[in-house]
Amino acid sequence: MLNPVRLLVSSLAQSTRCCSGYVFRMRFLNSLKQDDEACKAALSHSDLMLFHSLKPLLKKNKDRSFSSVRLQYDDVKSLLQKLGTDLSLIQDSVLIGSSERGTALFCLDLASVDAAAIEEVGGAKFVDLRKSFFLLSDSEAPLVAKAQALLRWHLTHTFCSFSGKSTKRNRAGSHRITEGSEVVHYPQMSPVVIALVHDGSRCLLGRQISFPAGLYSALAGFCDMGETVEEAVRREVAEEVGLEVLSITYSGSQHWPFPNSSFMIGCFASVSPAHSELCIDHSELEDARWFDLAQIQTGLQSSATKKGLPVVTWFPPPHAIAHKLIREWVELQTQAPPPH
Ligand SMILES: NC(=O)C1=CN([C@@H]2O[C@H](COP(=O)(O)OP(=O)(O)OC[C@H]3O[C@@H](n4cnc5c(N)ncnc54)[C@H](O)[C@@H]3O)[C@@H](O)[C@H]2O)C=CC1
Ligand SMILES: [Mg+2]
Prior knowledge:
The chain is globular. The protein has helices spanning 4-15, 21-34, 36-43, 73-82, 115-122, 129-135, 141-156, 229-241, 293-301, 321-334; strands at residues 47-52, 55-60, 66-68, 70-72, 94-98, 104-109, 125-126, 167-169, 176-178, 184-185, 190-198, 202-207, 219-222, 247-256, 262-270, 287-292. Helix 2 (21-34) packs across helix 3, helix 6 packs antiparallel against helix 7 and helix 9 crosses helix 10. The chain has 340 residues and is of the alpha+beta class. The site of magnesium ion has 4 residues, from strand 13. Its EC number is 3.6.1.22.
């Protein structure tokens, strides 16, 4: 009998022969989410990203950069065999991506196996997600964050919140179904607006008491049920710093894994320079300040204060959408005005 994943790859390759590799990849992944048999077959020819208790396995490269460890299915099998572990554990893998040639990428949490033993065999280390996120490259960090978010969602959704019955996942791990029913549960994320407020020549950044010393960021807040993005930005800015937003422009979005899965929606929000006096709600923010271009440029070159040294003002690192909003604002300020 023909392997179901080979069949799927060849029929998709036929039907998408006039399309890009990206189209093939998206359709391949979508099919694996719907077809348990094909997904099971894809797993046995896949690459896997390993986690332990939600910490990704990272290796240090020769150039001192870090990357996540990806092992082939057979290597994971041998690793588990070597450690005397039940091989059926691999079936807990969750689908997170694929190559343009139809090799699926899964992630697997080996929390029930001795972490040190895996680290020794793999020549790598399990690193806390917050640390990993900032050690990894711009292209790898979001994938590792997505994998961890999906693994965490499965770990915390083994029971139906309505009936209390247990839930069972599909092969790809893209949803769970309450046993004996047709109730489907999908991975959850919380929409959060993040706005860089500006008044024409300055931009506004704030800090929560829990932030590391000197760190200032754009204003952020969870969307309330029933709110539009625009309403959430207006409300958060009014609540946190007492300003009325005049207009909002969308900039970009980002999945943010901390503390749980947030879907960050990044915007610029303008306020009138004539009404820019701050009325900070100190239960939400420890401080908020207007920064001019020179102060922002200095802050972008600073990093967290070392122990014992005076506190400097610094901004979120490049992976954070707050950083991207701040950089985009600087670019807008330094661009030559269009000719008349
Ligand atoms: N990627 C980035 O550049 C940045 C990301 N963020 C993220 O934005 C998120 C929201 O920012 P905050 O100012 O803390 O939000 P916030 O101003 O809405 O205040 C947080 C409070 O909102 C309430 N809340 C309402 N819905 C919630 C939900 N679904 N989950 C958790 N709490 C909920 C809780 O009482 C919580 O204490 C944070 O988790 C933070 O990690 C914040 C700044 C920069
Ligand atoms: Mg906030």
